[in-house]
Design a protein that fits this description.
The protein is α/β, with parallel strands linked by helices. The protein has 15 helices and 21 strands.
């Protein structure tokens, strides 16, 4: 069996793995990246299909735009990129029409005087009052019902529900009030969401090019069979080339895993675990918990991320801005983006690419797809949709680690019980950081832990380098009347 030695081994070439490798290379370490697929990026890349950039997971969007954690990490690493920030707070499809809101106060047009008053009241409770300890773990729908009459404020409830479904892939009863408050504060303080030039596939390509230029080894189509240990310290991994079947032992005192806690734990036990096995085990554990307690929390009824994304190619522009259209009066679709408003190259010349997202609410996938198509016809008009639009893909996903990790019911730390073994990625997003922003922040937190062991600088200096704090609270004032422009 071949043996090779490195300073660090990265398992998984998703966004978290690539960012970790880039940061470790910047620190002068010899790095090898191991990926079981024939390409990098994981859920943060895209495939060209009929001339359009069809994303594998993300919708070509950075939730916090050019001021966010990922953008600032890319700047620090000097990774070429361009981000087109949204030019509106958002638009809202409600009562059969699309209403654009340049700033947050523009939602008055959606709610009217009475519901807008309660909207301001909820905003005050979320942003200007310290959240009582007793309310922090409440499901957000329960908290909302304590402070407003949900039956008399249907658009206000739908407003929060659509944002939660689009941004977190969660229903309001599945996310705690504390998490909603933290996430919302970050959304306002960091700024507008933004579309990546070239889409997420282009950024993955730049990251891959960068780590290779900096001297990393990248092994695609490579299965990790085992994480090797000695006296509670990781010493490396045992891998197999999927093409040749050849096994190798790679040694390093540092292993970074971007494949999730359960799969990582299985490798420590000299086992491999598939996503299907993880989900089967989760469902069995959920049933057992519910049988043990008649008062099991309702949030346990859906312990995985279940969503449906639709890519649509249109002859005409259907969303007149660079932000998100939230859907308050649909059966399933929570929100949509038209990323070609920012970068026309994401679709063939003269075409517009639209991407919708919904949380699947039943076990019947075909029914969910039919409801998505019905929503699209309703949103844009049956004749317009039939005449000008073509569905490119309808992709359902089920995953252990959702866009936000709250469904799992607990935070997972980047550190593990094994010295030298760290976790990054979807499963270990810090509270309040969603989607790829949370992935980038998980890498920053891993580096902060690593620097405690390797760096003799002060804790304050380490935090300044690794953990990116939100901008000043005054930054949120931009959202009152208008959204920021392009970066």
């Amino acid at each position: 069996m071949q043996r090779q030695h490195f300073d660090a081994i990265v398992i998984g070439a998703g966004l978290g793995g690539l960012l970790s490798a880039a940061q470790l290379l910047q620190r002068g370490k010899r790095v090898v990246i191991l990926e079981r697929l024939p390409h990098c990026g994981g859920r943060f890349t895209a495939k060209t299909f009929q001339g359009a950039q069809v994303s594998t997971g993300a919708v070509h969007m950075l939730p916090f735009g050019s001021s966010g954690v990922l953008a600032r990490t890319l700047q620090r690493l000097r990774i070429p990129h361009r981000i087109f920030d949204a030019d509106v707070f958002g638009s809202f499809h409600v009562r059969g029409r699309q209403i654009r809101s340049r700033g947050i106060l523009g939602v008055f047009k959606i709610f009217g005087p009475r519901q807008f008053f309660w909207f301001l009241r909820v905003g005050y409770l979320m942003f200007f009052r310290r959240l009582p300890i007793a309310e922090r773990s409440l499901p957000f729908d329960t908290w909302l019902a304590r402070h407003i009459d949900v039956r008399r404020n249907p658009e206000l409830v739908a407003f929060f529900a659509s944002i939660s479904r689009f941004a977190l892939s969660l229903e309001l009863h599945q996310v705690t009030t504390e998490e909603v408050v933290r996430t919302t504060k970050h959304m306002f303080r960091f700024g507008a969401p933004g579309i990546l030039q070239g889409g997420c596939g282009a950024l993955t390509g730049e990251l891959e090019r960068h780590v290779l230029e900096q001297g990393a080894e990248l092994h695609l189509r490579t299965e990790v069979l085992q994480i090797l240990l000695s006296d509670g310290q990781t010493t490396g991994v045992r891998v197999r080339d999927k093409a040749s079947g050849e096994e190798m032992a790679l040694y390093a005192p540092l292993v970074v895993s971007d494949i999730g806690p359960r799969a990582t734990e299985a490798l420590l036990q000299n086992q491999q675990i598939t996503q299907a096995q993880v989900l089967k085990q989760q469902r069995a554990e959920q049933v057992a918990r519910q049988q043990e307690s008649e008062q099991a929390s309702e949030c346990l009824t859906q312990p995985e991320a279940i969503g449906l994304k639709v890519h649509v190619l249109s002859d005409v522009s259907l969303i007149p801005h660079k932000g998100i259209m939230y859907c308050l009066d649909t059966q399933r679709i929570a929100g949509m983006v038209q990323p070609t408003n920012s970068d026309p190259s994401l679709a063939p010349p003269g075409k517009h690419l639209l991407i919708s997202h919904q949380v699947i609410q039943s076990a019947n996938i075909e029914e969910e797809k039919a409801l998505a198509l019905a929503d699209l016809s309703s949103l844009f008009g049956e004749q317009t949709f039939a005449q000008h639009c073509r569905v490119l893909t309808m992709s359902a996903y089920r995953g252990e680690w959702p866009v936000n990790r709250l469904v799992q019911g607990r935070d997972v730390a980047t550190t593990t019980s094994v010295r030298g073994l760290y976790l990054v990625g979807d499963a270990v997003k810090p509270a309040g950081y969603l989607m790829v922003e949370g992935v980038a922040q998980s890498v920053n937190q891993f580096l902060d832990h690593l620097d405690v062991l390797e760096d003799d600088r002060t804790p304050a200096a380490r935090r300044e380098r690794n953990v990116i704090a939100p901008p000043s609270r005054l930054n949120a004032l931009r959202w009152l009347w208008e959204a920021p422009g392009n970066s």
